[in-house]
C-alpha cells in the first residue's frame, strides 16, 4: 500500500534534513512570544529562518516516556521496562523507528502499541531549528497528530518536562511481522517492483495484537506480478492463511458461449484483505512474489463461435486471408512484460452473399467500443477503450469500398497498450448487412440504462456500450429505453447516427414531427406522455424515458446500408469555475476587519478550469489558488478563503450572497490557499447551495471571499515576482511579461525562487510555473508546448530583501523542436563525500533503503532547496508540510529547547 498523498507531501517537505532559510511577514519576536505561551500558529511558522530535519534527526530519549499499559494481577503497573540503552529515537515515522518490543526486569516481553500526548495520537517526529536575530538557534521537537487542522489551528508546544508517551503492551501479547520472499523463497529487502513494506502491507499495518484478539490488514501488489500471501504461526511454522494475488483470468468455450474456466478468478485481483481471529502466538505475514515475463492474447475460441465463424478473417505473414476458425493460431498473440503492448489485424468478410461487420466485442468480460464505417466510406474510424485494469485498447476500421454481398470487406486493427494481464475475447459479434438492429454506442454520464422487450411489456434488460437490440417488423421499434442522469452531469442528449458517425438526429434538432426518430416520454400512472425534448425531464421514479418511432423503423428498412443505426445517450459533465472576491471594506462591531478595495493587490484571477472547466470526468481536482492577496498598506494580512452561498433563479442562473456557508457543526466552510476540492463526491455535494450558473462564463460558479486579520507585527517589505515568456513568432523572438505577483516579507529575508519540482524521478517545472503557463496569468491564455527556465536571465533568489532589492524575474523560453534543452532531467544521486549548499537548488536525491522513502526524499530535496518566492509556494519547508497536513487532517506540533549557534 502506497503512502497517502498527505504523508508523501510531508516527506517531500521534511524528509531530507536540508536547511531552508526563509522569512515572511510575521516577526520572529511574535513567534517567540507564542512559543513562550505554549502555542504557535501557522503564520508564526513563516516568521523566521529555520531548518527542518526528519529522517536524519535523532530525537533524544528525554523527550519520550516509555509506559506499560497492562497491569499485573495485583493491580500494580509495570514500571521496569528496560530502556536504559535507548539514547535517541530516529526521526520519521515512530512506528518504524521505536523498538518494536521491550522486556522488563522479569524478562516479560512488551510490544509497542501507540504513541500519544494526552489523548492525541502521534505519528511522525523531527527537529526544527529557528535562527533568531541575535544569532542564537532555538531547537524544537515537532510531531504530527491525527487532529483535524484548519487555517486557524494553534499548535501546542511541549514545555519543559513534557514528553511523548510510547505505550507498550504487557505480557501475553503477540507480534505480527512482515517480510518479502522472491520466487525461490529467499527473503528480500524490497517487494515487487521495489515496493516497500509500507506500500505492500500498509503504513498502519498491525504490529501487535492482544492474546485471543484479532487483527486485519490489506495487502496490495503492483500490476505485472503474481504473489502468494501466507500468514504463518511462528511457534510451529504452520500456515494459518494463504491467498493468491495477480492470478490471471482464464476462459473456456462451450459451443457458442465463452465463460470463465473453473477455478479462474473473475478479475485479476491485486489486493487482499486479511482478517484473523483468536490470536495465540506471534505471526509472520509473507508475500512471496514473482514477476510475470509474458502475457497472452487469445481470440481463437471466439473465432469458433457462430458469431465469428466464417465471418471473421485473419492474415498470415504474406497478408493472405484465412477464416479465423480455420487458422486459430493467427488469433493468438504472445507479448513480453517489457513492451506491455501488441497489435492484431483481422477482417470482416463477405461470404455466402452476406457482408459481415463487427458491431460488438468484449475482452475479459468488459465491453470494448467498436468503430463502424459505411461500406463505401473512405474514412478510417477509430475508437479507444480503457479497461478497468488500465489496459488501453484501440480499434480502427477501414473499408475496401466494395459492394455489399459480393466484394465488400472491412479491415480491423487492434492496438493494445499498458497491458499487464492476459486478454481473451470473451464475446463479440459480426452482423450481416441485411440485419436490422440498434447498436448502443455511447452511454456517457448516465446510470442504470435499460431496455424493455416485447412491445414494452417484458422485463428490463441492462444496456452497456456495444449492446445490440434487434429491430424486426411490428411494433418493437416503440419498446421504451430508460436511464438515470449520473451525478455531476448536465441534461443528457439523444442522438442517432450512421455507422460512420454521420448524425441522423440529435434531440429535436434535425427531424421533428412525423420525421422524428425518437419520442421523449414522461411516465404517468397509466402509461407514458410524449413531450418535446425541451420539456423532457426525469419521471417520478428518477428515470428518463424515450422510445423509437415508426420513422426510425422505415429508415432502417429502406436499404441494407441503413439497417444498423447507432444510438448514443450522452450527457456532458457540468463545468465549474472558481471566483475570488476580496472581502474589502468589511466591518464588525464598528471596527474595520479588511483592507479598503483600493489597497488590495494580487487578487487571484477567476479560475475557469480550461476549455471544459473543472468537471467530474477529466478535470476533477480544483486547486484553490496559492496566490495570496496583499494589503499595500500592510495593515491587514490575508488569512484564508470562506465559501459564500448563492441565490439561484428558475433557469439556474444566479449570484453569490454575503452569507458564509456553514457546516453541520456550525463552523464556516473555509479553504486555505493550496487546498483542493473535487468535482464529484462529498466535497462538491457540500457546496451545492453555493453554486450558480453564469451564462457568460458557461460555468457553475463557486465564490470564495478573502478573510483578513489585523497585522500586529513589524513593518514588512513588498517584493515582486514577474513571469516572462519567450517564443518564436513568424521567425522573430517575442518576449512578454504575463504575470506579476506582490508579496510581503520581513526586511533582510532570503528568497529562493520556486523553479522546479520532482515527479516520477524527473525534474520538471514547478507546479506554480505550470499553472501560470496553463492560463493563470494576466493574458488569460494558455502557453502550449514545452518551456524551460532561462538560467542566464532568471533570478534564482534574493539573499537580502530590501526596498531596493526586491524583484524576482522568471524567464520561460519555449523549447523549439531543434532545441535539445529539456526541463526534465534524470535524478542524480547525491555524492555523500561532497558537501552541499542548502541555499542553492540541487538535482540530487538522497538514497534510502525503502523505495517509497527514496522517491519521497528525492522530491523533498528539491522541494526544500527550492522553497520559493514565486508567491504560490513561498514558504519554509515546514509550512509546506502543514499545508499537506491540513489537507489530510494531520496536525503539526512543536516542542523545544534553546542552544547557542555554533
From TrEMBL:
<feature type="region of interest" description="Disordered">
    <location>
        <begin position="815"/>
        <end position="868"/>
    </location>
</feature>
<keyword id="KW-0732">Signal</keyword>
<keyword id="KW-0472">Membrane</keyword>
<keyword id="KW-0812">Transmembrane</keyword>
<feature type="transmembrane region" description="Helical">
    <location>
        <begin position="877"/>
        <end position="896"/>
    </location>
</feature>
<feature type="compositionally biased region" description="Low complexity">
    <location>
        <begin position="831"/>
        <end position="868"/>
    </location>
</feature>
<protein>
    <submittedName>
        <fullName>Uncharacterized protein</fullName>
    </submittedName>
</protein>
<feature type="signal peptide">
    <location>
        <begin position="1"/>
        <end position="22"/>
    </location>
</feature>
<keyword id="KW-1133">Transmembrane helix</keyword>
Amino acid at each position: 500500500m502506497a503512502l497517502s498523498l498527505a504523508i508523501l507531501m510531508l516527506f517531500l517537505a521534511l524528509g531530507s534534513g536540508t536547511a531552508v532559510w526563509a522569512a515572511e511577514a510575521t516577526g520572529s519576536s511574535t513567534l517567540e512570544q507564542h512559543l513562550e505561551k505554549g502555542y504557535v500558529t501557522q503564520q508564526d511558522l513563516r516568521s523566521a529562518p529555520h531548518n527542518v530535519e526528519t529522517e536524519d534527526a535523532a530525537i533524544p530519549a528525554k523527550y519520550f516516556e516509555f509506559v506499560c499499559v497492562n497491569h499485573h494481577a495485583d493491580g500494580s503497573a509495570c514500571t521496569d521496562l528496560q530502556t536504559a540503552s535507548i539514547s535517541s529515537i530516529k526521526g520519521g515515522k515512530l512506528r518504524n523507528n521505536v523498538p518494536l518490543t521491550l522486556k522488563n526486569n522479569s524478562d516479560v516481553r512488551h510490544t509497542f502499541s501507540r504513541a500519544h500526548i494526552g489523548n492525541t495520537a502521534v505519528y511522525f517526529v523531527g527537529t526544527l531549528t529557528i535562527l533568531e536575530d541575535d544569532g542564537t538557534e532555538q531547537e524544537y521537537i515537532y510531531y504530527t497528530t491525527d487532529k483535524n487542522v484548519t487555517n486557524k489551528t494553534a499548535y501546542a508546544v511541549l514545555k519543559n518536562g513534557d514528553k511523548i508517551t510510547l505505550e507498550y503492551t504487557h505480557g501475553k501479547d503477540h507480534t505480527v511481522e512482515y517480510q518479502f520472499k522472491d520466487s525461490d523463497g529467499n527473503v528480500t529487502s524490497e517487494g515487487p517492483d521495489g515496493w516497500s513494506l509500507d506500500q505492500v502491507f500498509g503504513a498502519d499495518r498491525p504490529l501487535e495484537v492482544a492474546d485471543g484478539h484479532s487483527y486485519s490488514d490489506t495487502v496490495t501488489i503492483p500490476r505485472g506480478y503474481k504473489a502468494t500471501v501466507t500468514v504463518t504461526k511462528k511457534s510451529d511454522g504452520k500456515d494459518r492463511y494463504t491467498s493468491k494475488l495477480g492470478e490471471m483470468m482464464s476462459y473456456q468455450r462451450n459451443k457458442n458461449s465463452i465463460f470463465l474456466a473453473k477455478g479462474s478468478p473473475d478479475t485479476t485481483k491485486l489486493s487482499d484483505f486479511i482478517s484473523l481471529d483468536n490470536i495465540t502466538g506471534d505471526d509472520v505475514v509473507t508475500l512471496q512474489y514473482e514477476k510475470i515475463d509474458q502475457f497472452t492474447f487469445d481470440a481463437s475460441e471466439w473465432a469458433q463461435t457462430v458469431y465469428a465463424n466464417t465471418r471473421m478473417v485473419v492474415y498470415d505473414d504474406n497478408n493472405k486471408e484465412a477464416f479465423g476458425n480455420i487458422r486459430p493460431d493467427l488469433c493468438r498473440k504472445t507479448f513480453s512484460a517489457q513492451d506491455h503492448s501488441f497489435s492484431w489485424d483481422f477482417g470482416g468478410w463477405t461470404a455466402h452473399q452476406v457482408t459481415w461487420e463487427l458491431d460488438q466485442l468484449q475482452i475479459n468480460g468488459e465491453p470494448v467500443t467498436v468503430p463502424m464505417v459505411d461500406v463505401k466510406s473512405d474514412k478510417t474510424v477509430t475508437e479507444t477503450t480503457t479497461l478497468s485494469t488500465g489496459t488501453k485498447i484501440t480499434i480502427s476500421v477501414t473499408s475496401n469500398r466494395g459492394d455489399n454481398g459480393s466484394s465488400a470487406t472491412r479491415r480491423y486493427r487492434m492496438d493494445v497498450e499498458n497491458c499487464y494481464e492476459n486478454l481473451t475475447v470473451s464475446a463479440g459479434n459480426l452482423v450481416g448487412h441485411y440485419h436490422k438492429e440498434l447498436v448502443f454506442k455511447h452511454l456517457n454520464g448516465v446510470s442504470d440504462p435499460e431496455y424493455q422487450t416485447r412491445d414494452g411489456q417484458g422485463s428490463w434488460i441492462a444496456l452497456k456500450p456495444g449492446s445490440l437490440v434487434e429491430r424486426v417488423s411490428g411494433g418493437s421499434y416503440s419498446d421504451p429505453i430508460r436511464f438515470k442522469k449520473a451525478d455531476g452531469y448536465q441534461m443528457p442528449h439523444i442522438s442517432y447516427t450512421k455507422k460512420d458517425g454521420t448524425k441522423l438526429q440529435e434531440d429535436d434538432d434535425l427531424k421533428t414531427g412525423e420525421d422524428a426518430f425518437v419520442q421523449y416520454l414522461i411516465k404517468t400512472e397509466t402509461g407514458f406522455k410524449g413531450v418535446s425534448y425541451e420539456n423532457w425531464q426525469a419521471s417520478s421514479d428518477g428515470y428518463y424515458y424515450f422510445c423509437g418511432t415508426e420513422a426510425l423503423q422505415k429508415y432502417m428498412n429502406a436499404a441494407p446500408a441503413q439497417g444498423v443505426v447507432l444510438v448514443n445517450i450522452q450527457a456532458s459533465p457540468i463545468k465549474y469555475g472558481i471566483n475570488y472576491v476580496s472581502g474589502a471594506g468589511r466591518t464588525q462591531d464598528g471596527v474595520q476587519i479588511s483592507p479598503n478595495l483600493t489597497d488590495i493587490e494580487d487578487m487571484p484571477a477567476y479560475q475557469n478550469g480550461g476549455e471544459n472547466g473543472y468537471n467530474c470526468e477529466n478535470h476533477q481536482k480544483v486547486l484553490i489558488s496559492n496566490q495570496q492577496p496583499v494589503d499595500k498598506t500592510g495593515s491587514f494580512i490575508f488569512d484564508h478563503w470562506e465559501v459564500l452561498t448563492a441565490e439561484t433563479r428558475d433557469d439556474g442562473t444566479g449570484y453569490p450572497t454575503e452569507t458564509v456557508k456553514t457546516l453541520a457543526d456550525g463552523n464556516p466552510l473555509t479553504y486555505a490557499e493550496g487546498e483542493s476540492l473535487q468535482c464529484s463526491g462529498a466535497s462538491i455535494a457540500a457546496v451545492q447551495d453555493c453554486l450558480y450558473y453564469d451564462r457568460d462564463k458557461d460555468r457553475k460558479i463557486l465564490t470564495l471571499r478573502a478573510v483578513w486579520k489585523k497585522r500586529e507585527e513589524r513593518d514588512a517589505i513588498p517584493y515582486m515576482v514577474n513571469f516572462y515568456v519567450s517564443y518564436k513568432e513568424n521567425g522573430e523572438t517575442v518576449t512578454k511579461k504575463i504575470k506579476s505577483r506582490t508579496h510581503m516579507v520581513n526586511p533582510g529575508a532570503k528568497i529562493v525562487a520556486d523553479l522546479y519540482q520532482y515527479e516520477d524521478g524527473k525534474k520538471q517545472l514547478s507546479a506554480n510555473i505550470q499553472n501560470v503557463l496553463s492560463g493563470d496569468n494576466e493574458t488569460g491564455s494558455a502557453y502550449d508546448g514545452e518551456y524551460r527556465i532561462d538560467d542566464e536571465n532568471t533570478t534564482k533568489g534574493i539573499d537580502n530583501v530590501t526596498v531596493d532589492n526586491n524583484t524576482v524575474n522568471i524567464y520561460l523560453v519555449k523549447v523549439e523542436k531543434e532545441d535539445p534543452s529539456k526541463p526534465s532531467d534524470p535524478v542524480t544521486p547525491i555524492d555523500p563525500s561532497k558537501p552541499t549548499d542548502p541555499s542553492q537548488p540541487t538535482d540530487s536525491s538522497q538514497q534510502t533503503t525503502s523505495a517509497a522513502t527514496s522517491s519521497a526524499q528525492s522530491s523533498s530535496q528539491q522541494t526544500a532547496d527550492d522553497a520559493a518566492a514565486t508567491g504560490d509556494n513561498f514558504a519554509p519547508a515546514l509550512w509546506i508540510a502543514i499545508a499537506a497536513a491540513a489537507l489530510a487532517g494531520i496536525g503539526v506540533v512543536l516542542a523545544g529547547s534553546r542552544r547557542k549557534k555554533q
